[in-house]
């Protein structure tokens, strides 16, 4: 004679119920409720059923002690199972994230490399075409091609900087001599834009602790001031000072100021920035400053834009 299963007797299977429970996502609420039910059942068994059914005080004390030992053993096993399961789930998620990050990095690098190479070809071809035209300075189409291809190249560079920024921990921040940093950046900017007028005022002993990509952020701030200046010979002032708590870098220009769309880029993130055509420059600067433990600020200026880098000071 065969013994009927729980499914045959009661319409459900204990094995299936256990499999369902083990597949549960053990949220804090479910863990608390499970422990509450088991704890309440244990108290009811020891303080109600045993007291009513066991008349011998000595035997009751032994049963209570045994029950207490089982509770300790069950609690330890319960914590071990939860910890092991959480650790295994965390390891699986970390492995999946590492794999996704590696795939994203490879795809982004291949895409940026190919796109940059293609834009370089477009720029070279447009430059050659403009040279062969009778009046190259009057051809708006050629000028538009050069501007847009240059914008795409800058987008690739900003995306690369953002990716490198996320891969550096706070422990890898470096002490940066701001005087040397500003001199090197201004020299590079003057090579790119010969008509720019830049003055600097940075103390020789001023050092900040920041992300290694701070130079890229400063170059973007100065380049952005030049591109939005609107004057034939824009004037830009780069200065730095030490305050009571921080080191502050100022980039002031005589242009029309920061466009409203750039402020929207900082508030809404890169998706809105790209959608509205403002690029990643301002957002990249903000990210580098945040990763440096500092902040990107804007101050009103009577004659143009005023970008402020707030940084942590460092001892020389």
What's the arrangement of secondary structure elements?
Layout: H1 6-10, H2 14-22, H3 28-53, H4 57-132, H5 140-166, E1 174-177, H6 178-192, E2 197-201, E3 207-210, H7 214-227, E4 235-242, E5 247-253, H8 260-268, H9 270-275, H10 281-291, E6 295-298, E7 306-313
Parallel strand pairs: 2-4
Antiparallel strand pairs: 1-3, 3-7, 4-5, 5-7, 6-7
Helix pairs in contact: 3-4, 4-5, 5-10, 6-7, 7-10
Structural notes for this entry:
- With 316 residues, the chain is of the alpha+beta class.
- It has a domain at 172-316: Histidine kinase-like ATPase, C-terminal domain (Heat Shock Protein 90).
- It is 63% helix and 13% strand.
- It has 10 helices and 7 strands.
- The chain has helices at 6-10, 14-22, 28-53, 57-132, 140-166, 178-192, 214-227, 260-268, 270-275, 281-291, and strands spanning 174-177, 197-201, 207-210, 235-242, 247-253, 295-298, 306-313.
- Strands 1, 2, 3, 4, 5, 6 and 7 form a 7-stranded mixed β-sheet that branches.
- Strand 4 and strand 5 form a beta hairpin.
- Helix 4 (57-132) runs antiparallel to helix 5 and helix 6 packs across helix 7.
- The relative contact order is 0.07.
- Residues 6-10 and 272-277 have low confidence and may be disordered.
